[in-house]
């Protein structure tokens, strides 16, 4: 075991509910304890540290034995660090002082800086709670700190509030610097802080703000925390309102599965199994009347409709790179009003989806790689737009289901369904159809990311490429998964090739299936 002063020191505290004692927080010392599998705890050294510093933050790291590649999370669950926990607990209990203990930080950052990174969230959570429960039983005065960097996807590793007393986030953590997060390069320190705090909105715990950046002093951080808190307060009744994040209710179960297609070539829409059609539209299509024409055609077929509103491409031909902000400022009110006027004429059910796949850190769409708060404001503006409407509109929040999706959740009051996209190809560099992931594997990963959000799912896009035999096997697996997950209320197959511009020099995948494959698939869903 080794004990060293940590490079990251406590620079500030975000504690709007005043849970932590204010006295002493400015003089907390941070030490890092490294446990190597098979090595004991140096109790005298640890006791000296505790007696010297009455306000203490300890970061405990678990490492494999020298020369070993053992999984440290499994080793924790197997009891290989139990003696270390016993020793630490005994020292902390005898001290009688309140000590903060972090365990295996930066777990969510996708790098190999530490041996507990690039592990499954479920395994990390089980190991964290194992450590936390045993330590607290031995030393009840200990405050356990869950310690992500504050990187996108951190909420996947949230172990729940039962054992956690506080959360920590870190400025310029070694892991985040190693990850080379492009999203942080052009942001101010205040913007970085606000995004990291925004990612903690489901946790409802005080946040310790650590910094490895010596240029950020406590006084400057206090000012930033005060400014961030003021900015968050602006949205206390919307983005951060507790009533808009009901994480405890049971997911509803479907009575009937809605089956649909995105099928612009109209190869499958006449099949008797199809009850819903998917239409993508943009500002220009609304301005030219093209959307109204498509909508009326769907209504004439007596199908329900998914409308994905892509807020770009107006008749000027110019991409609005500030489309989210401009939407909230009213630039597109005329188009939104015309959209709602068209929808109000229909008698079928409308599933309305705004600016999908917003969380993917790319620039395929103008609303991607943006501030989550700005996206949420635009979604809420669109959903609550003052226009006559009928009761047949259902609002669909449509992330792809990638890491960090929950950061963009706009609130229970404006979401009826969550949609995710499930396509067999996990990476555009894969051209062999047989290397596609199964529907089940993709669904399990993406569905887990929605665990805070108790809304039913409508899978508005899914597809697989390859031979008909391969597609049939993939779809059979999909049918099995859909039947097992009764919070899936609807599915919609993407019966077309993808946009070639998004695939560069590689031929865009064609997800189209035959009528025969559709029939086999829907028969399995009966």
Explain this structure to me?
The chain is an alpha/beta fold. The protein folds into two domains: 2-233, Alpha-Beta Barrel (TIM Barrel), CATH 3.20.20; 258-524, Glycosidases (TIM Barrel, Alpha-Beta Barrel). Helices cover 31% and strands 18% of the residues. The chain has 15 helices and 17 strands. It has helices spanning 43-52, 72-77, 82-95, 121-138, 174-179, 189-198, 218-233, 283-288, 290-300, 323-328, 333-344, 372-383, 439-448, 468-484, 515-524, and strands at residues 2-5, 9-14, 29-36, 56-63, 99-103, 142-146, 166-171, 207-211, 258-262, 276-282, 304-310, 350-354, 393-397, 417-418, 421-423, 457-463, 488-494. The strands form two sheets. The protein has a nine-stranded parallel beta sheet with strand order 14-13-12-11-10-9-17-16-15. An eight-stranded mixed beta sheet has the order 1-3-4-5-6-7-8-2. Helix 1 runs parallel beside helix 3 (82-95), helix 3 (82-95) crosses helix 4 and helix 6 (189-198) crosses helix 7.
Features:
nine-stranded parallel β-sheet, TIM Barrel, eight-stranded mixed β-sheet, alpha/beta, 526 residues, globular
In CATH, what is the class of the largest domain? Alpha Beta
Q: Which strand order spans the largest sheet, edge to edge or round the barrel?
A: 14-13-12-11-10-9-17-16-15
Tally of helical runs: 15
Q: Tell me about the biggest sheet?
A: 9 strands, parallel
Q: What count of domains describes the coordinates?
A: 2
CATH homologous superfamily label of the largest domain = Glycosidases
CATH level 3 topology of the largest domain: TIM Barrel
Report, as a whole number of angstroms, the end-to-end distance: 59 Å
Which class do the helix and strand fractions yield? alpha/beta
* Rg estimate, integer Å: 26 Å
Broad shape:
globular
CATH architecture call of the largest domain: Alpha-Beta Barrel
Helix content: 25-40%
Family: Belongs to the glycosyl hydrolase 26 family.
Active site: 357 (proton donor), 461 (nucleophile)
Keywords: Glycosidase, Hydrolase
Organism: Chitinophaga defluvii
